[in-house]
Structure formats: C-alpha cells, structure tokens
Amino acid sequence: MADQRRQPKLDLSAGHRLRPWSTADAPMIPLAMTDPLIRQYASQLLDDRDAALAAIHSWSDGWGQGNGAAWAITGPGEQLLGQIRFGLFDEHLGAGSVGYWLLPEARGRGLAGQALTRASSVVFRRMSWHRIELYHAVENRRSCNVARRAGYPQEGVMRGAMLYPVDGRRSDEHLHARLASDPEP
After folding, report:
1. Which of 2, 90, 144, 181 pairs with 127 at a CA distance of 20 to 30 A?
2. pLDDT at 1
3. What is the mean pLDDT of each run of 10 residues along the chain (185 residues)?
4. Alpha-carbon distance 136 to 71, whole Å?
5. pTM, rounded to two decimals
6. Strand (E) positions, the chain?
7. What is the gyration radius of the CA atoms in the chain, in angstroms?
8. Which phi and psi angles does 38 have, rounded to 5°?
9. How many CB atoms within 10 Å of residue 169?
10. Rounded distance between C-alpha atoms, residue 89 and residue 43, angstroms
C-alpha cells in the first residue's frame, strides 16, 4: 500500500508529469511570474525567491495536513512547465478549489486538461472532498475549455468575484465545479 502521507508523482502523456514542488524550484517560480498571461490571471504573485519558498513550504504542509495539494507540471527532462494547486475552503462541506498556470511553451497541447483531470481524481480520493470549484476570468476562453474537457461543467458567473493583484482590477469569473460522484471525463 502506498504511503498516504507522501504526495505522489503522477504521469501524464509524452513524458510529462506532475511532481510535488521542491525548494530547489523556488528560483523558477518568480521567473514564471514574469510571463504576461500568468501575471494577468494569477491570484497570487510570487515575485521573489523568499515568497516562492514560503509558498512551497505551505503547499507541502497542505498535503501533509490533508487540506491541499500542489504539483509542478514538468516535461521530459523535468523542466518546469506549470503548476496545478488545490486548496480546501470549507472542511465541513468537503469543498475546495483549484487553479493552474502553464508557461507559453506548454500551452495549446492539452497539458492543463490532463493535469487537471489526473490531479482532481487523486485529490478526491486523498482528501475525501465532495466538490472542487474552478474559477477563471470570463474572457479567459482557454481556461473555460480546459475546465470543460476535465469534467468541470460551468455553473454560472460570479460578478466581481476576483481582485487581481497585478493591476487591482475586479473581474467577473466563470464558476465551474466537479463533484466526487461525477463520472471521469
């Protein structure tokens, strides 16, 4: 039986994988945050190594405590291509949320959808959550497509629900969600 305390590495197609973040990844996160599209839609900006290290420790603690999970999305050769992160927001309801980003060279290949599908299944099993919500700016059609392909149907629009740190803008967000009882996509 696998050790439930240890966050698993998850294989994706063509040598891509999800792996837990390492403190050695800390310098790469601020570099990723320089991408204009990541900056535009990031809910949190980790612009320096110290902030990235603190986040990595927090993500690791989340898995250990059973209230979150974060994986680096990597390509063949382990180069960093993106992130997927889950966080519990209501323990009583068994409800959490998910967010992700990809570097430009990884976009348009179905990698975000694969990562979301695979990691969601693991999170449902490990965390015993009932519901995972996914939010994205209404104009972000790519995220809308990723959510739908990964079995997250759109449920509605949340008006003024996000305050983006890069420019302080309020954004209407699409709400997508997947239930543990939903069929695998």
Report:
1. 144
2. 32
3. 72 97 96 94 92 96 94 95 96 96 96 98 96 96 96 97 90 97 94
4. 19
5. 0.93
6. 10-11, 17-20, 68-74, 80-90, 95-102, 131-137, 154-163, 170-179
7. 15
8. -65, -45
9. 11
10. 15
Q: How many domains does the chain have?
A: 1
Within a domain: 104: yes
Q: Do 145 and 179 contact (CB within 8 A), yes or no?
A: no
DSSP state of 117: H
Angle between helix axes 141-149 and 111-127 (nearest 10 degrees) is 50
The residues that bridge with 159 in the sheet, in sequence order, are none
- Please give the pLDDT value at position 3: 45
Give the phi and the psi of residue 137 in degrees, each rounded to 5: -60, 140
d(Cα 7, Cα 71) in Å, to the nearest integer?
9
Side-chain-side CA neighbours of residue 6 (13 Å): 6
Instruction: Record the tokens describing residue 127, joined without a space.
Output: 């965390």
Residue type, position 129, single letter: W
Domain that holds residue 106: 12-179
Q: Domain of 49: which CATH number? A: 3.40.630.30
Strand pairing class (95-102; 131-137): parallel
